Amino acid sequence: MPPREDAILSEKPRPSSVARLRRWALWLSSVPLLGVVAAFGIAPDTSTEHVTLEQIVQQIPLPSASAVTPTQPEQFWREERIQRGDTVGSILARLQVDDPDALAYLRSAKGVRSLYQLVPGRTLRAVTTDEGQLVTLRYLHADGTELVVRRQGEAFVTTEEQVRTERQLVMTSGEIETSLFAATDRVGLSDSVAIELADIFSSEVDFHRDLRPGDRFSVVYEALYSDGEFIRTGRIVAAEFTNDGRVYRAVFFQDALGRGGFYTPDGKNLRKAFLRSPLEFSRISSGFSTARFHPVLQTWRAHKGVDYAAPVGTHVRATAGGTVEFVGTQGGYGKAVILRHPNGRSTLYGHLSGFAKGLHAGRRVEQGELVGYVGMTGLATGPHLHYEFRIDGVHQNPLRAVLPPGPAVTRELMPSFHEASAPLVERLNLLRNIDLAMRDDAAN
Ligand SMILES: [Zn+2]
Q1: Pairwise pLDDT comparison (4 vs 66), residue with the higher score
Q2: Which of 319, 317, 318, 308 is nearest to 285 (CA)?
Q3: pTM of the complete model
Q4: Distance 271 CA to ligand 1 centre (A)
């Protein structure tokens, strides 16, 4: 278990204060990103002291399929959700486009290629005449631009247009039973949000070996919408992670120069000089090593390193910024990389199957940068990474090492930090209370 001083915040939740609240109400329909007022309501049920609840974890309002709206007397506006296995032709058929000229144009025109990406869940909108002739076709991309195909007389013109997007804050929380991805899948979080969550707390929690059944997370993240259509998720703005009973919290803060980072609610930097895990967190590596919460081949012992079981090819990253001291084969370590870091620290990564392209002695690497791939070269009985951490040449247990923190929020920036973080902390508190109430509900 990591040392106590690593705890950023260790509060014990007080279930008694919310135990009476069986059900909660939470409305998230249009919460502007910079809004300070939390948009939620708790409606007490007068007869029983209970509270009515409607929880919306991820709100993706979509019009019913094939909504038909007359635009001009002979024109119809329709929209269709893209489904798995769709082709442009099959969607156009559902949009009731019956127009060989349009089909021929869409097949050959260079500007419409992005249409063929057909991301399931995204929508295609069309305006047609009552005879099925295509007038306009619109397809929204993940970057917020829209592909627009318009009929002009007998021909078609394609343009890319910037559409207006709104940001909404989405809040959700979950509990880990087997793996982080199993838990995030269950509550409908995208992989990008799950990976960002692991990344935010990567200096505190080793997501390959520290996770325990019963660990919990809450995230507040941005989602981009255009005209009510979900485009994509954005960044996490606040998060809470409870690991083995200890609670870590993070809020995003951007200084006047636009440099953003995650801090504890009292302004400490969450990014430390070293990452807890040298393995890149991904669906594959996490599934392999945390499926049964037995990620370890051996713990810290005589061989003075820590082993991470992971599939061959898993990305191995520099746990801290530094300089490459050695790249090559070294006895029982097999293919290995040694990095030199500030303050007499160095790290070693062994049994690799290969090295990052262009890695050579003397090169500078950044924290988190790819240095190689998991393998089983040297004296290894199975694919795993052997990781060592030394201070002034003396082996240290990396799982126990107290890591130097990154720069905290400066005194000058504290007022604006508190102003920005207070509503985010409020949301985390709200999520925690809902969580406790729902768990209490489930227990009864
Ligand atoms: Zn080892």
Answers
A1: 66
A2: 308
A3: 0.66
A4: 26
